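Hi Prof. W.,

I finally got the E3 ubiquitin-protein ligase prediction working! I wasn't sure whether to trim anything, so I left the full sequence exactly as given:
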Amino acid sequence: MAVLAGWPASQQAEKSLKWWDERVDFQAAFLQCLAKHVPNIYSSEMDPLLEKQEELVQVTIFYPLERCLFGEDPDICLEKLRQSGSSQLCGKVFKSGETTYSCRDCAIDPTCVLCIDCFQNSIHKNHRYKMHTSTGGGFCDCGDTEAWKAGPFCTKHEPGAASTTQENSECQLNEEVMAQARKVFPSVIQYIADMTIWKEEKELPPELMTREKTDNYYCVLFNDEHHSYDHVIYSLQRALGCEFGEAQLHTTAIDKEGRRVVKAGPYASCQEAKEEIKRHSENVSQRPLHVEVLHADVVAHQKFALRLGSWLNKLMSYSSDFRQIFCQICLKEEADYENPCFISMLMLWDAKLHKGARKVLHELIFSSFFMEMEYKKLFAMEFVKYYKLLQKEYISDDHERNISVTALSVQMFTVPTLARHLIEEQNVITTITETLLEVLPEYLDKNDKFNFQGYSQDKLGRVYAVICDLKYILISKPTVWTDRLKECFLEGFCSFLRILTCMQGMEEIKRQIGQHIEVDPDWEAAIAIQMQLKNILLMFQEWCACDEDLLLKAYKECHRAVMRCSTNSHSRAKTFFHLCGHTLEYRPYRVSVDSVSIHLPLSRTLAGLHVRLSKTGAISRLNEFVSPKEFQVELLIDYPLRCLALVAQVAADMWRRNGLSLISQVFYYQDVKCREEMYDKDIIMLQIGASLMDPNHFLLMMLQRYELADAFRKIMPTKDQDLIKQCNTLIEEMLQVLIYVVGERYVPGVSDVSKEDVVMREIIHLLCIEPMAHSAIAKSLPENENNETGLENVIDKVAVFKKPGVSGHGVYELKDECLKEFNMFFYHYTKTQHSKGPHFSQGTEKHSVNQYGRHLTIRKLLSMWALPPPPPPEFSPAFSNVVKIMNCDVMMHILRTILQRAVELETHLWTEAMIQMVLHLLSLGLLEEKQQLGKAPEEEVTFDFYHKASRMGSSALNAVNIVMLLEKLKGIPQLEAQKDMINWILQTFDTVKRLREKSSFSTVTTISRSEATKGDETQSTQDKDKAERKRKAEAARLHRQKIMAQMSALQKNFIETHKLLYENTQEAQGREDSIMEEESIPIAINHYRIALGPKRGPSVTEKEVLTCILCQEEQEVRLENTAMVLSACVQKSTALTQYRGKTLEDSDGMLDPLFMHPDLSCGTYTGSCGHVMHAACWQKYFEAIQLSFRQRLHVEQIFDLENGEYLCPLCKSLCNTVIPIVPLQTQKINSEDAEAIAQILSLARWLEIVMARISGYTANITKEEEPKNAPAVVSREKGDSALDFHSILSFGIQPLAKYSRSIKEMLVLFATTVYRVGLQVAPSESDPRIPVTTWSTCAFTIQCIENLLEDEGKPLLGALQNRQHSGLKALVQFAAAQRTTAPQSLIQKHLVRLLAVLLPDVKVEDTLSLLDIDMFHVLVGSVLAFPSLYWENAVDLQPSSISSSYNHLYLFHLVTMAHITQIILTSTTESSTAQSQDDSEEARTAEAFCKEVSQYTSGCFSQNTPGWHIWDCVKKGITPYLRCAALFFHYLLGVPPPEELLVVSDEGQLKALCSYLSLPTNLFLLYQEYWDTVNPLLQRWCADPAVLSYLNGKSIAIRYPRKRNNLIDLPEDYSCLLNQASQFRCPRSSDDEQKHPALCLFCGVMLCSQRACCQELVNGEELGACNFHALHCGAGVCMFLKIRECKVVLVESKTRGCFYPAPYLDEYGETDPGLKRGNPLHLCQERYRKLHLLWQQHCIIEEIARSQETNQIFFGFNWQML
Ligand SMILES: [Zn+2]
Ligand SMILES: [Zn+2]
Ligand SMILES: [Zn+2]
Ligand SMILES: [Zn+2]
Ligand SMILES: [Zn+2]
Ligand SMILES: [Zn+2]
Ligand SMILES: [Zn+2]
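And this is what came out:
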């Protein structure tokens, strides 16, 4: 509420005075004011100056208005109000994409959520919370006591918290303000309402018409969901003739706001534009865009009305009084008017308003009504009053749900008291179901059943929203039931049954015979509705079960509804079916011929209610409500039975011509998403049937419906193999269902089990198959209405959690003791699960091969495979009769028939599976009888399974009893696997027989399976036992074979599906193998382990014979042979940068790469996967890929052929070039010669010689061509004149090595790639910078590897990965050889410039100061370039070994001294807090040296640090450089290093490095040794203006050792990151639209990714913020964390990238990409470390390439816009 400066307060006061005046009619004055100002303020709609507009509105309207409202300066008053705070509700409205939190422990239902602020300040932070991403529109429930079981307030909203204390009461609005508000609000609301729903295009209400009507019109375009972004842009461009950019601007605004002025002008021209737009849009998509021509003043007022709405919205947050007054006015109905109140009117208009207007209105509702419980209730009642209308409007609208007023339902319906009130007072359940009934008729067919063929997915999706409301209203069960509530609920339930009636039997299908169906019918809609309804059905049942009377009444209604649906189709005459002396009277019906439907929600609801009757005991009163005559159980079970028979027939392949649609339906029928209210209930219905029907009749009915009557009446005459197979499958399916009917009792109500028991059993059976991740288990269990599975409550009782490694996820393994619960005929097993069989934990596997443990383990395996079922829990009384079907005549007949057929070896009429099931049924029967005998006296147990089974059959076919049949079965070889089971059954027969005969075992109570087996075993006689054991051993062997085969099949399968993964890991393992090439070398004395100077040891090389990975031929690497090459990838890298984000511009193409800045901000890294090829083979390979890609029309953008990219043929790493393998030239020096030379070749002398050589060249060049920039060597006055141009040659030369042509070609090729990539320029073979880039990548790669080794804590040499070793070796040798392919004069020129840094006598223009150069790069460059000084008159010479060793030594010493000076100057000043240490020699020399330095810097370098500290700094600072140098010389010369460098040792390292590099351990002695020579150099280095400027604090420099780069620190708790993201604001745009913040893991900056606002134009290409950032931050390669998605993104070179799991795990060791599960996440350091290494090893590119290779199906993600 800023007041404009310079606007006299008196004038303001005067202006508002007249409103304040009681005598003035406020409304008139208000409107007059608006009429005057609004059109002026909003006059330039095409190109509004938003700030100006806002200023004017404040001054001319809001200030007076507020003044009028408060009667004093509004700023003061509002400030008071603001401080008082006024609500205990948070009420923050979520924008789409914001993170919301819910608590699984405390939230009443999952719709109760907290905003991030409240969550962070709440107790739920430490509970089992869930994070989710809002779709927009909801609001924070903090402070709502009804939403939370505990902790409803965060600390900020707690009553009595600082911000809401006593002040609150003090600061209530005074009466005057309230009176004023009552006066002001109505006019304001009236105006807002009038203008938002204003329909006239050209006119305004008369009160607002003040001036002459102008001919100013706007053409306004509205948003719709039908036209795509591109359509609109296209249409606008065409219709208005505007630029793409402008059209895009319009379109974005339309999408956001809902409408936009696209043209201004006189009426006629706007009208014309309108027609044009309509025409063009109609052309592209059949439907015209919605365009209106509105008068300018209308648009202005409408715009202002929304502004006024936001003003009110803000006002609401200040005071509860304001809210109440506002709500009262909004709800007020004019007594004499038909019109609804303001708020209802606005609601009813909602679907016609544009997006922007809706948003303002909804926010207003949130900030007023929803913040005051009493008014929320009143609002809810208005909402329900118009519910039908609103929903219908919404369904025909095309805007998304989150911007519809109907989406507010969740805010009201889920509040328990409100829901109850709405049910009681307004019958809301009925209202909702009736709405459904009214909108669904368009889907009804002639039988009044739904039919969704050809439905519109969008429309139906909108209908689901209504179904969702039903779920919301039911989500919390009432605790108190009033009569009124029961009455209304029952009415709602009956109304709901009408919907189910339309679904009962919908979408019937008929078996297709002969021809395949032409079009697969739509099935998704019906199944989707089933899924939507599943929990609603369960909730209805739960509600009913709350009250006995209610339950019975609901049952009665439901039963009636089922009957109504069942009878009308029965018109056929009844026939009869006889078997075993029993007769079934039935109506002919065949699933395979007549139509059948899997949709039976009525029957299943009835089954559900029945179970609940049984559970509560109310079933005893059922007769009062449904008479036995009416009940007709046969009819009830008929439809579910048909459905099960259909499933059996589908399994028997009888319906294959009906296509995939049916397969899918059957799948969902049994799938976890639907089965509770489909398959499971059908089984229950059969159990109800079995409990209430005569068991023989029940079974006859089963046989009839499975169309198996004939199969059990006589031997089937047919010889048709297909038919026999079909019939066998049907028998198997039916036996399975019979097993389920008698055996599956884990349903509360069917037996006395708890919900927990049920979940536990599900989990045990899942884990029996294989160990599973938490999320996988959760996905396999049904969710309740609160999306809970109950998993966590029981999992620890049955399973053990196994933590994950660095990849993969944690899993649960079943506890061994739970294996005994395993039932192989568990009814939720799919066919594949069933065939997989139980899982053996690793321990078990190991045991089975262990000699000693074998016996025990095999017993265990056996006991699992010879699987008698675990004893099921006892049926509850209502279901107790089910067991009778096991010992009835027809069952005995069925069992006997099957066994008989097996015994008679009629192989085609039985299967092993069938026998298994028969055995299972027999065991169930015996267990039942045994159990009953254990509980009651023998004579009372009527269940006589044993008796029936041992009775002879009546017919000839059944002339033997079952026990005898079993005995015979043991002899059948095909049934070897079942033998244990058969034995077990026979033994149990025995046991039961003895129990019946009251033998000594009559006291046995419940015996567990294993005990039973054991007990029975002991009874067998010794003899029998022996034979038995032998047989068992044999059986065990067979079993083991079978299991092993099964296992290996599984494993093979696994490997095949995860082939790539497998190969990769093997590959990775291979690479990890470190090399220890030195091991093979005979122990050389340390004396020879010196790389430089006269004491240099011999090079150790072996004959290198390599195998080409392409042609598999071997070849020795030799200079004269054709080239072998190493696949390689050259990339820019910022891995070592000390100055992240520094840009290297090469705008003029003249970037000088000779000197590397010590910040190492960007280098060129060369990596290799270490795979060798013939150069020729590689060339052929590369050409072949090029060809194949050119031929393919559709080219996947996996790699960039243009830039030489390819995948390594062996390991599929991304490569872009090859490095030639140049053999190392063995060099050995004669120590005597060397000693002799040492006498004369001092550093001073060596320098003189070098200078002479250089000046000699310069003279020559000057003579020849007079170059402008030739280096000038200041001739030395007192030099020995004998030192001439040629003296350098006198210390030993040799001819240049001759490389084969092929090697030379490859040298050029690789050098060109390095140059091209390193400088990002077009390739060239003759650019003078090529040698320089070669040296540079060599130096930089060594630095990277050194840094990585240190980081990983590995020794310098001896632990390199194979690929690093061979890559480095090739790279260094290449760099040495590359010189020979360039003109020597060029190399000399580079060398002189490098030396100029060190030597004062060489003067080159623009020589950089010591502080601006990385010394290691100088070392590598000068060492590699130095031989060019031996070039003589076009004769290529090179220094001899001895010469080289001196050259190396002196160059290295010079550079080292320069580097020490660097370190002294930059890194020793920081004072140390450590205690003074002993005064060592090093310390003393250090101190002395610093005094000198101090002198040369004219005192700028004031040294007062103690010597030991200086020495300490120098030691630390120089180590990385020395390590790099050791690596470099080792790979250059092949001299073995001292042992100390092969192991990790901080102590010995420096000493070993110094010894290897011929340095004194006290480095300062170096200066002493060369003092006369170095002194002048030192003076010059120190006196450099740049150095002095630094020492005076005018510039900064890099300190040594350079800091090691790490990925940024991430918080441990992921919600902290989400918190950060929620505070993120886009730097470019101020809108409140959802952002996709991405965190750069290199530098920690947060970016606005995937949004147009932050795109950048680079070289004419649009780049997303991340890609643009990557260019600077990581030289194109970068790593981001997309915070809302919880995914890491790797990007490279604009067009490539891949997702990578974020290093955050939930407590179950699983990642959560997309935050789909929303469990709390915590940082996994190991995984983060892995990402760090991925970066430092330069493997990001490789990872991207690999990921793109594996995910060939690419989802068209636009990486460029990231
Ligand atoms: Zn909140
Ligand atoms: Zn709060
Ligand atoms: Zn909680
Ligand atoms: Zn080859
Ligand atoms: Zn490879
Ligand atoms: Zn960055
Ligand atoms: Zn942005």
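DSSP finds 64 helices and 29 strands in the chain. Does that look reasonable to you?

Thanks,
D.
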